[in-house]
Amino acid sequence: MIPALNEEERIGRVLEQIPYNRLPEAEVIVVDNGSSDDTARVAASKGARVVREPRRGYGIATRTGFSEATGDIIVTMDADGGHWPGDLLKVLQPVAEGSSIVAMGVRIHSFPHGMKIRRFFGNVMLAKVFDTLYGEHLGDVQCGFRAIHRKALNKLSLSQDGMQLTTELLIELKERGIPICPVQVRQVPTDRSHIREARDFIEHVSLMLRRFPSYWSARNRNRHWAVAQTPKFVGVNGHSRTDNRGRNEVNQEILDSLRKIA
Q1: DSSP 188
Q2: How far apart are CA 55 and CA 224, in angstroms?
Q3: DSSP secondary structure code for residue 79 in this structure
Q4: Which of 36, 71, 248, 257 has the maximal Cβ count within 10 Å?
Q5: Domain co-membership, 70 together with 152
Q6: Do residue 192 and residue 253 come from a single domain?
Q7: What's the pLDDT score for residue 94?
Q8: Average pLDDT, rounded, for the chain
């Protein structure tokens, strides 16, 4: 699923590079987000199903694409050529094999990274803020290259209309205890972007801070639920304690329980 706004010069090349021979049953959806050029026509000529969404906004287009998609696994990527379609199978693999129900692309893992230096440092800073607040180790929280299983998507409540949907989606996953599998993908240099760097940076951080109390509350609820499920018995001294399994085993059980919540 590819949200697209005025990408007539790039969308055709992106669609041509998708490895269709490895994905014989895949449906390709391009959400035309109110384009004033021939994005929709070019996408349709390359075999994509075009969904028109006149209300502009990355979040609006992405939510529309999610609702239109019919498959069990939905992969999203950018229309501007910033993602290498050859990495699609790599992003899809953890979800298709069942080792995870969400996989997120991580672009910032080597240099050169195909990203302007100012945007690179902005992304690094956003990742630092998110990872610190939400206890993750992603390194990149703004990549639109992701694979998500329908059973995870159905548990999320997404409402952001703009670029902040990328942050909101991650926060929703964290609040519901759904693990995120990071996958290294390459960043392809592009000559333009719809990102408003300073404004979007502030709005992303603002959303992280606003949602942090609800995440912390959900985290504590989940932890208390998991502890309540840990088997206990009363010892000879009258004190209640966990059974004679080692502490590490009990902790692992709690972690496994957290992953199944929601």
Answers
A1: P
A2: 42
A3: S
A4: 257
A5: yes
A6: no
A7: 97
A8: 85
How far apart are the C-alpha atoms of 259 and 27, rounded to whole Å?
A: 30
Structural domain boundaries, residue 194: 2-218
Residues 6+ apart with CB under 8 A from 66: 1, 74, 153, 158
Domain match, 191 and 252 both: no
pLDDT surpassing 90 at residue 58? yes
pTM summary value = 0.80
- Domain assignment present for residue 42? The answer is yes
**Per-residue confidence (pLDDT) for residue 18, from 0 to 100:** 96
Domain co-membership, 125 together with 235: no
| pLDDT exceeds cutoff 70 at 245 | no
Looking at residue 194, what is its pLDDT? Answer: 64
Is the residue at 224 inside a domain? no
Give me the pLDDT at residue 256, please: 53
The tokens describing 142, both together, are 């703004």
pLDDT of residue 231: 43
- Looking at residue 32, what DSSP letter applies? E
Decide if 166 contacts 65 (C-beta within 8 A). Answer: no
Q: pLDDT tens for residues 225-239? A: 444 444 444 444 444
3-state helix, strand, coil in the chain (%, to 5): 45, 15, 40
What the block records as the tokens of 43 is 């996408």
Identify which of 169, 109, 166, 117 has the alpha carbon closest to the alpha carbon of residue 142.
166
Mean pLDDT, range 130-146, rounded to an integer: 93
Cβ proximity of 55 and 3 under 8 Å: no
For residues 147 and 240, membership in a common domain is answered with no
Dist. CA 172–CA 225, nearest whole Å = 19
pLDDT at 224 (0 to 100):
52
In this prediction, residue 128 carries a pLDDT of 95
Query: Phi-psi bin for 199: left (phi > 0), alpha (psi -120 to 50), beta?
Result: alpha
| Bridge partners for 53 per DSSP | none
Tell how far CA 132 is from the center of its chain: 18
